[in-house]
Amino acid sequence: MKFKEIKEKSSEFLFQNYGRIDLAFTHGKGCMLYDTEGKEYLDLVSGIAVNSLGYAHPDVTAAIQEQASRMCHVSNLYYVEEQAELAERIASITPGNLDRTLFCNSGAEANEGAFKTAVRYTGRGKILSALNGFHGRTSASLGATGQEKYRKTFEPLISGAFGYFEFGNCEQIKGMVDSDTAAVIVEPVQGEGGVRTVPRDFFKTVRDICDEKGALMICDEVQTGIGRTGEWYGIENFGVVPDIITMAKALGGGLPIGAVTTTEEISSVVTPGTHGTTFGGNPMVCAAGCAVIDVMKRDGIVAHAKDLGARWREDIRAVGSPRAKEVRGYGLIIGIEMDSNESASHVQKYCRDNGVLVNVCHGNTVRLIPPLILSDGEKDRFTALFKECAF
Prior knowledge:
This protein folds into two domains: 3-56 and 300-389, Aspartate Aminotransferase, domain 1 (Alpha-Beta Complex), CATH 3.90.1150; 71-299, Type I PLP-dependent aspartate aminotransferase-like (Major domain) (Aspartate Aminotransferase, domain 2, 3-Layer(aba) Sandwich), CATH 3.40.640.10. By secondary structure, it is an alpha/beta fold. The strands form three sheets. Strands 4-10-9-8-7-5-6 form a seven-stranded mixed sheet, with helices on both faces. It is built from 14 helices and 15 strands.
C-alpha cells in the first residue's frame, strides 16, 4: 500500500489521538527501518525503547515462528510452560530475592498490578510518585503520573490516593512517607520526563524511608529495564534493591508484554481471584521474552550498552554545541537537553531528512533510545549529523 492510501485510511478509520510524522514503514532489519518509498532510516527510537535487539533478529524471529506453529494463546486457567520459563529467566537477572513474576500486557498494566499488590500487602491507601514522572495512561497509572498535561480532563477517573514529590528531593520524600503510605514509585531515569537523572543518594533515601515506615518501594523499569541503562535494571546503577520492579517494552522484543516482579512474601497476597488478565503471559510473548534474555546473555548486550552509551555521551558533549544545555543518561538512554523546543525539533527534522530517526520528549530534549545492538559506526552517524545541525 502506498503512503498516501495508508494516511487516508488512517484519517478515515482511526482515532486521531497521535501526532504522527508523515512516514510509514514496511519492514526493518537490525537498526534500520525501510519506508513505503524504499528509503532507509537508522532508527534511534526503537519503537520507544521496545526493539532492544533491533528488527527481525533471527533468534527472536525463530522463537516466535516456532511458538506460533504450535500455540499462540492458552488460558491462564491452566499451567503455561513458556510463562514458567520466562519467569525463571527474569529471576536470574533480577536483584535481591525478587523472584516471583506476574505477567500482563503493558507497562501501564504492570504498574496497576504493582499498586494493587502494594495496597493489598500493606493494607494502606496512599501511593507517592515523582513530579515529572510517567507511569502509564490507565486510570491508576495515570494518577501516579506526575505531569498534569497527561491527567488533564481525566480527573473523574483518577483516585485521590496519589501524592507527588520533587524527583531527587530527599528531604521532601522523608516528610511525605507516613503510616498510610502503601508505596513509593520511582523511575531510575525519568524517560518521558526528558531523560532526567538524580544523584544516587536519592534512591538510597527512598529505600531507607520505605523500610522505616513500612511502605514498599516500587521501581518502574518499563523504559529502563532489560539492559537499557547498561545494567539489567536501571536501579542497579544506584546499588538499591526495591520491593517490586515493573517492566515491559524491551522484554518482548517487539511483542506486547508487561511484568511485575517481587518477593515470594509480597506476591503471596495476590491470591486467586484478586487479579488477572486474559492475554497476559501467553505462550507467544513469553517465547519471545525468553529469546530476548537468552540473546542478551549470550552476546553481552548489557555490557555493550553500558560501554557504547558512555562513549556516545562523551562524543556528543565534545561537539560543543552552544544549543545543547546538558547531555544526560545511562547506557543507551540518552537525553540531549536543547536550549528551546525549536532547537530540539530542528535536530529531529534535520536527522530525519538525512535518514536518522530520533525522538523529542518533554519539549526540548532529544532522546536517543536505539536498539541495544547499535554499532560504533551507527552512533557516529548521529553524532556527525548533530555536529552539522546543532550550531
